[in-house]
Specification:
The protein is of the alpha+beta class and about 450 residues long. Helices cover about 55% and strands about 10% of the residues. The protein has 17 helices and 13 strands. It has helices at about 15-40, 45-50, 55-65, 70-80, 90-100, 105-115, 160-180, 190-200, 205-220, 260-280, 315-325, 330-340, 350-365, 365-370, 380-390, 405-420, 430-445, and strands spanning about 125-130, 135, 140-145, 150-155, 225, 240-245, 250, 280-285, 290-295, 300, 310, 375, 425. Strands 1, 2, 3, 4 and 6 form a 5-stranded antiparallel sheet that branches. Strands 5-10-9-7 form a 4-stranded mixed sheet, with no helix packed on it. A hairpin with a 3-residue loop joins strand 2 and strand 3. Helix 4 (about 70-80) packs across helix 5 (about 90-100), helix 4 (about 70-80) crosses helix 7 (about 160-180) and helix 13 runs antiparallel to helix 15 (about 380-390).
């Protein structure tokens, strides 16, 4: 956790609305001031330029980091959904927002513990660390020790999150619309509705507990991964308790040998394919903090299953078809699969469709490599970015992909980025072909 500051989380809808209202007033005041200054200098400023000043960016990021919850989540989702389609200034704001986290004051924290566990909340523990060791948009994580000496990680949700999701997202959306950062023809409302659904799910720790147990079952036969064991008797809708696993950051693998780096990246990419084609379930948040590494055991620790989504069978089948077509450079089959996934619902011209297919083709480059793909020396990310910018440079060509696709692409992009940071060399084609072969054998057996 990068910030050691504390800030009380606004818990009521009124206090959260007032918080954003105060922010809007402050931004508007700065806009009027900057506008008057530029006019006095003989300039004709644009509203977007006045809104996105460094001062306003700081105000917005600070206020949203204090509100956390939906206010932070909508920014994070827009950042992941639109990626390089966002203006540089907004991308900087969102990056600042993701890097900052202010913890709850002790009094507010203890109130939550009492509400969930009663006045004698401390009785099961030999020790409970009131200072969190991690914090995010929805909650913060504390270390605790049971009377028997077992170490636990206790994830505690910020107050008021669940009851203010819809209003928070609507309020933040209004702020973003004020700045005219989102082109009118982007189906912004669809993204916001998806953000609401996703956050309602993430804000229910009983759902996350269910997903955690699902992954423990699905990966029970895979010795590559370690998943925390939940302490169900202590879990509530607002608190998730699991055993504490001692491990280092996944980025620490960058200091290991080439063979280990390759193995770790291969295992995570294999997991992605299993999620998409076998499990029908995907943990869609590739934040590096959700992956850790045990060097002595050479195992990957998987954390945080709040953003887990079910992948419909038809979607899985169409992504298989899309990847196979991209692998074989079959543009007609690629377009057919993309159409069935939902990418071409709107009336778009052939040039725009071709640009979107170009991005798919670029993203599947590792699948076409006949040997291990060198992510460390590849400029794949830059080329995908350039292809995305060729679309975003013309607002008329903006297109909103289906929600499920957004999350799948987010996960794959995260795995590619991690492989690049680890300078891994992965035979992606072999992993993909092995997955297809196993599926064919299973289907034949049925």
């Amino acid at each position: 956790m990068k910030s050691s500051q504390t800030a009380k989380v606004p818990a009521s809808r009124l206090s959260r609305l007032s918080s954003l209202g105060g922010l809007a007033s402050r931004v508007a005041g700065n806009v009027l001031f900057e506008g008057a200054k530029k006019l006095s200098q003989g300039q004709a400023p644009k509203l977007q330029d006045l809104v996105l000043t460094p001062q306003n960016i700081t105000h917005v990021a600070d206020k949203l980091s204090q509100m956390r919850g939906a206010a932070m989540k909508v920014g994070q989702m827009l950042s992941m959904d639109s990626g390089e389609l966002m203006p540089k200034e907004l991308s900087e704001l969102l990056a600042k927002l993701r890097s900052e986290a202010k913890m709850m004051p002790h009094k507010q924290l203890i109130d939550i513990l009492k509400q969930n566990w009663g006045a004698d909340w401390l009785s099961p523990f030999a020790h409970f660390e009131l200072r969190p060791f991690a914090a995010a948009s929805i909650g913060q994580v504390h270390q605790a020790t049971l009377a028997n000496g077992s170490k636990l990680a206790v994830k505690i949700q910020y107050p008021g999150i669940r009851n203010s999701i819809d209003s928070d997202i609507d309020n933040v959306a209004s702020l973003l619309r004020l700045s005219k950062l989102i082109p009118q023809n982007v189906q912004f409302d669809n993204l916001l509705n998806e953000a609401k659904k996703q956050l309602h799910s993430e804000a229910d720790y009983q759902i996350e507990l269910e997903m955690l147990n699902s992954y423990r079952t699905l990966l029970a036969d895979d010795p590559s991964f370690v998943i925390p064991t939940p302490i169900a008797t202590l879990c509530t809708t607002d608190i998730l308790v699991m055993d504490y696993i001692d491990a280092t950051s996944i980025e620490s693998v960058a200091h290991e040998t080439q063979a280990i780096r390759d193995t770790v990246a291969s295992q995570l990419l294999t997991l992605f394919f299993r999620e998409l084609f076998e499990f029908g379930l995907m943990q869609t948040d590739p934040n590096f903090a959700n992956f850790q590494y045990q060097a002595d055991q050479q195992k990957i620790v998987l954390l945080d299953f709040g953003a887990t989504r079910k992948i419909p069978q038809h979607l899985s089948e169409q992504y298989k078809a899309l990847m196979c077509a991209a692998k074989n450079n079959d543009r007609t089959a690629m377009a057919d699969a993309a159409q069935k996934i939902g990418f071409f619902r709107d009336s778009i011209d052939d040039a725009q469709k071709s640009l979107i297919l170009d991005i798919f083709y670029e993203a599947c480059e590792p699948l076409r490599a006949e040997k291990a793909y060198d992510f460390g020396t590849s400029n794949l990310a830059q080329r995908i970015k350039a292809a995305g910018m060729s679309i975003s440079s013309n607002a008329d060509k903006w297109h909103t992909p289906p929600a499920d696709a957004i999350f799948i692409h987010r996960k794959l992009a995260g795995m590619y980025l991690l492989a690049s940071k680890l300078e891994a060399k992965i035979n992606v084609n072999a992993i993909f072909e092995d997955m297809l072969q196993k599926q064919n054998i299973e289907q034949a057996a049925v």
